[in-house]
Amino acid sequence: MWAHGNAGPHYRIALTDPTHASAVVAADQFLTKLQVGLSRSAGGHEIFEAGWRHLVCLCLELKGYVRYEYDLSGFPNYEASAQRLDWILGRLTMRDAFPVASAMIVDRYGAEF
Hints:
The chain is α+β, with helices and mostly antiparallel strands. The protein is built from three helices and five strands, in the order E-E-H-H-E-E-E-H. A hairpin with a 5-residue loop joins strand 1 (2-4) and strand 2 (10-15). Helix 2 crosses helix 3.
């Protein structure tokens, strides 16, 4: 599946195996139920709101369910202001926060999805 956003970001996601389809749906539902709690525990970084779908896709890729390609160069605030990410006790831009957060989510919850 391809997706194109306003101002230029684009995304491509593909299952690594057709049998992963139900796992991808279940993982998305599981992570979406955790979204508010994850955001609160991480200090409310904007990746949990404006970048939520991208974050989920990164988690799915780390689990090996999908191949995920993207270009977020036109995504608002992607490389702009750094925000607090309490999980590391520091401030990160969206670009830097996505890989940190996805790895932490998969490390903590990956066995459940």
